[in-house]
Amino acid sequence: MNVRLDDVDRKILKAMQRDASQSLDDIAREVGSSKTPVWNRIKKMREGGIIGQQTVLLDAEALGFEACFFVLIRTSEHEADWQQKFLAALQARPEVQEAHRLAGDIDYILKVRVQNARAYDVFYQALISEVRVFNVTALLSMEEIKSTVALPL
What we know:
The chain is an alpha+beta fold. Helices cover about 40% and strands about 20% of the residues. The chain has 2 domains: about 5-45, Winged helix-like DNA-binding domain superfamily/Winged helix DNA-binding domain (Arc Repressor Mutant, subunit A); about 65-140, Alpha-Beta Plaits (2-Layer Sandwich), CATH 3.30.70. The protein has helices at about 5-20, 25-30, 35-45, 80-90, 115-130, and strands at about 65-75, 95-100, 110-115, 135-140. It starts with 6 loop residues before the first helix and ends in a 13-residue tail after the last strand.
């Protein structure tokens, strides 16, 4: 579905990106509208696929997930069967927060969040036991400088 956005829609999206738990009244007040039109716009954007799943952001370190690894994967196999098996292996692992197929020398990059290096090794051993890869390089993030899911509207 093709949804055309105007300035009010964008203001609503900015408000929701900042805090999706705020009330419709608060959003309406912020964008200079009333509750019912704001609700109708949000509903239209949900139905149009502009607004997806709503969730909460958890503090990984506070929950004991202190290690974030960026995993660079090169493979010599690019057949559909291998890709399906690789995708299934990634989908089955909650440690994988993000996975991207890349252009260039590296085929895939994963963002993997685990408790520590030992937990990463368990993840790594399980992955390579299921899917054949040519080369894996793991980079440990020493410090998260910026992280956001907000789009620059």
